[in-house]
Amino acid sequence: MDGYNRTRFVEGLLERYKEELPSFTIHLHPDAWTLNSGSRFRYDNQYVVGIGFQGFLDDVRAHRIPVDFVEIFHESGVRYFEGCLIVDLLDYRPTKPTDPPLEIPEKTREVLHSTSETLWADLCVINSNSGGNLTDLQALEIEARILLATSAPLCLDPNPHLSRIANSVLRVTTPSTPVSLKRKASALDAEKAEAEKARKEKIIGFLAPDSPRASRQ
Q1: What's the helix, strand, coil split of the chain in %, to 5?
Q2: Between 25 and which of 3, 60, 88, 128 could a Cys-Cys bridge form, CB atoms 3.0 to 4.6 Å apart?
């Protein structure tokens, strides 16, 4: 049953490799973010010619490997840990949008998991590296090995109660989706508060006795 406990797996993975360097690091600044020590990308414009970064932070937030970057990860020698990627997030953004950036960032580690899409992308990369000569049988064998190494053990007991228990454990132990990496929750709340304040002031202005609109009625 331990194999169905996603949180326990993530905690164990991070503990086993706590002294290792991550697969890559994301630096979150107030107005932009960087991947390792590369170029800066604005949160509202994440496109570079030939490389689409749209959705990259969303994939990280959802704890899944960005499928569009699987080939780049292979070419760059990005390290995988038991089929997963370990990512360091260094957040320099202040709690209040009016405060200066943090000198010492908040550091967290996230684990990105493979999906059926990244599995297909892995097979395409392997096929390309082999000169495109991979047969269907070889592809199936490679897929089986990857699934065996990265998937939870199958529950072969026909007991429906055990299956429901296993599914429930997997569901409730899956790490919750964190706050958007693009904007901090506090910043979003502040913007919503300002928008609500402006809306109320506008309404009050319309209803004020000395307002031009009121005087015409």
Answers
A1: 45, 15, 40
A2: 88
- Euclidean distance between the first and the last CA atom of the chain, given in angstroms as a whole number: 72
Tokens, residue 195:
């928008």
- C-alpha span between 9 and 174 (Å, rounded): 10
Q: Which residues of 53-89 are buried (b: 16+ CB within 10 A; e: fewer)?
A: beebbebbbebbbbbbbbeebbeeeeebbebbbbbbb
Phi, psi (rounded to 5 degrees) for 8: -65, -40
Kindly state the DSSP code that residue 84 receives in the 8-state scheme: B
Most confidently predicted of 66-75, 121-130, 193-202? 66-75
For residue 43, which phi and psi values (nearest 5 degrees)? Answer: -65, -30
The model's pTM is 0.67
Distance CA 105, CA 184 (A): 14
DSSP string, 138-172: HHHHHHHHHHHHHSPPP-----HHHHHHHHHHHHH
Question: Both tokens of residue 53?
Answer: 């970064």
Alpha-carbon distance 185 to 165, whole Å?
34
- pLDDT per residue as tens digits for the range 174-193: 555 555 665 555 555 555 66
Among candidate residues 23, 37, 126, the one with its CA nearest the CA of residue 65: 23
Residue 35: alpha-carbon gap to chain centroid: 13
- Report CA Rg, the chain: 24
